[in-house]
Amino acid sequence: MLFVSKPEIYEKIKAFPKDIPTLKHIFIIESDGENSMNALEKKGAAKSVPPQVPEPGDIAELIYTSGTTGNPKGVLLSHGNFTSNSLAGIKMYPELKKNDGKDALTLAILPWAHSYGQTGELFAVIHMGGAMGLAESAATIVNDIVAVKPTWLVAVPRVFNRIYDGLWTKMNKEGGLAKTLFVMGVEAAKRKRELAAEGKNCLMTDLKLKLADKIVFKKIRERLGGRLMGSMSGSAAMNPEIAQFFFDIGIPIYDCYGLTETSPAATMNASYDYRLGSVGKAIDKVKIVIDSSVVEEGATDGEVIVYGPNVMKGYHNRPEDTNATITADGGFRTGDRGRLDEDGFLYITGRIKEQYKLENGKFCFPVALEEEICLVHFVQQALIYGLNRPYNICIVVPDAEVLLDYAKEKGLPQDMKELVARKEIIDMLSENIANHLKGKFGGYEIPKKFLLLAEPFSVNDGTLTQTLKLKRKVVLDKLKDQIEALYK
Length: 488
Description:
This protein is α/β, with parallel strands linked by helices. 37% of the residues lie in helices and 19% in strands. The radius of gyration is 25 Å and the shape is globular.
């Protein structure tokens, strides 16, 4: 059912494909100066429609996948898919259900047109009786957090990576006592964890952490609204070092994992049962199986297959794609590589469709490299490429604020387009990235050449999905001539 305010909108809706069985009634609401809700009620009374209670298997929504590596596919999700997923997620964070759910207040950062924003926030918070503030834009998130003062966030790692990098940038600029206390607190928290693992404690370490928390960490929490009990993060695994930092300052971040086809959650770290670096355990009524038959011999991981009431009904009008991803016994082949530890925590190790071999036959997993490169102070976004090539190259979008500050110190022009073309800037960024990757990745994986871009990838230019994932094929097609030049 849909209510529209103008006849011309109705005409456009009528032109939608006839095989989408979601709209059964359309009403036109024409404003006559009355309160719009009164007008709506009058129209409804004049043409009442009996309520239709859906069955669990009835299709609730048709959501298109992000299409990061190919054409988007329409995912058919049922009322049962969404309901089971939201209820399972709520069980992972019992603290949000206290006070009849009134303690659940979020700032909506992610689009509700996507299953992550819908299931993890919209449906779950409404079910608990909580409330949601709406972020004005990606650029205003920090200020919006202060205004809304949320108790919980449903977000992606990129949000926290930017906050983390921003904190270090600020501390490095200010220096002095503030930086000293900040560093002291970070180091004390790390030492406290190391001692706890050995069953020990240290009074001096505790005092240092308490002092840093009172003077520095408390201010960080206040800058993030002052009431955050934690956050659920999805779309990619958090960097363990950054996740640990937020745990140390009192804002735990719990990684979860899923896809549009799984409504979307498949595994989650719970506030009472979590493991940093993992994406958690299977949620209620869901089972995770690792299929090692589809990866190279000797690998300790395999393709992640999801079983449960969260698995989609199929792809709209694409039976071949449906049959290729849904197993005979009802499991969904995710296309992701992963492994389960002895306690059932899942670790994502790569994306089968996105992995590739270099010319020397060695495998590369670009997403892992890109996530690590984006932790370099000067880097905002990165994309790795090297399919059947002699070496990897890296497309980098520098952090404009950080790079312009560096350029100012060096007496260089304050123009991003000019800066990204300068050899000394390319060399500086290349060296920073290579040094950051050494010891974490094989030498053959570290990119040998770099392409710097002045403008970031964005949803508006079609290079990012609504959940801020890179549309790899779009970027590579757009920059193919420049990429080829790096191999000549």
